[in-house]
């Protein structure tokens, strides 16, 4: 579904990604791990066209998206849950959702208000609250719900559970597990190995803008050296 082939990405003169490659197959949940500042968010921003790759290429559903605009990439079926959530503060929960609602690229309409309220019952109780009046956990659910409302073929999540209380994290992971069970392809940045090895199929660890380790959940759980060397745990 997604192939990132040896991309180099920069902020101005400063190179952040070096020969970075990864793949997500249809129906897979894949994580991107690594210490702070190693280039995880930049990888996601390059996939979305927000920091276009200067070398290498990115294919999505066999189409070259390397130099497309973020808008066109989103319309092809990639839904982003950005770091920091970026909820519209002056719109209600429901209005935030309706603002992004769209049939998917193949006319897929799996996600609408009704199915979103079923996935996140807590959010439905807050549907009339303004975006800036809900808790951090509710904002994170809303950010995921908003991306789902575009009916994406691939969902990208950047730090989906950072700063959230343990119970709310469980709720987010339950949601990811449900999505995986229905075959949603997901690429997720998250630091919580224990939960993620449970949900995800494969993992990439990046260091200084390039992949230094890749493998299955079982490989990662068994590789104490990799965990210590690259993740500091
Ligand atoms: N807008 C920017 N302009 C210049 N440099 C940036 C910018 N955004 C990030 N960087 C730098 O690029 C490098 C990679 O950052 P990135 O946010 O991709 O890392 P990350 O692995 O997602 O880290 P974190 O877990 O802290 O979000 C860092 O050295 C960072 O300082």
TrEMBL record:
Keywords: Amino-acid transport, ATP-binding, Nucleotide-binding, Transport. Coiled coil: none annotated. The keyword Nuclease does not apply. Residues 2-233 form the ABC transporter domain. One of its GO terms (biological process) is L-amino acid transport. InterPro entries: AAA+_ATPase, ABC_transporter-like_ATP-bd, ABC_transporter-like_CS, BCAA_Transport_ATP-bd_LivF, P-loop_NTPase. GO terms for molecular function: ATP binding; ATP hydrolysis activity; branched-chain amino acid transmembrane transporter activity. The keyword Nucleus does not apply. It comes from the Bacteria. Belongs to the ABC transporter superfamily. This is ATP-binding cassette domain-containing protein. It comes from Sneathiella litorea. The lineage of its organism: Bacteria, Pseudomonadati, Pseudomonadota, Alphaproteobacteria, Sneathiellales.
């Amino acid at each position: 579904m997604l192939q990132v082939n040896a991309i180099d990405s920069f902020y101005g003169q400063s190179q952040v990604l070096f020969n970075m490659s990864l793949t997500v197959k249809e129906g897979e949940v894949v994580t991107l791990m690594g210490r702070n500042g190693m280039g995880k968010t930049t990888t996601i921003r390059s996939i979305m066209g927000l920091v276009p790759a200067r070398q290498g290429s990115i294919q999505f559903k066999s189409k070259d998206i390397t130099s497309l605009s973020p808008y066109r990439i989103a319309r092809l079926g990639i839904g982003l849950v950005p770091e920091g959530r970026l909820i519209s503060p002056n719109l209600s929960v429901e209005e935030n959702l309706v603002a992004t609602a769209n049939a998917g690229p193949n006319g897929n309409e799996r996600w609408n208000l009704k199915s979103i309220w079923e996935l996140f019952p807590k959010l439905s109780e807050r549907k009339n609250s303004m975006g800036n009046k809900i808790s951090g956990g509710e904002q994170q659910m809303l950010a995921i719900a908003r991306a789902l409302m575009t009916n994406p073929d691939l969902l990208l999540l950047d730090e989906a559970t950072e700063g959230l209380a343990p119970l709310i994290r469980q709720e987010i992971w339950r949601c990811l597990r449900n999505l995986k069970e229905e075959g949603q392809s997901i690429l997720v940045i998250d630091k919580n190995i224990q939960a993620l090895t449970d949900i995800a199929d494969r993992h990439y660890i990046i260091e200084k803008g390039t992949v230094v380790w890749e493998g299955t959940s079982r490989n990662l759980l068994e590789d104490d050296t990799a965990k210590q060397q690259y993740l500091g745990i």
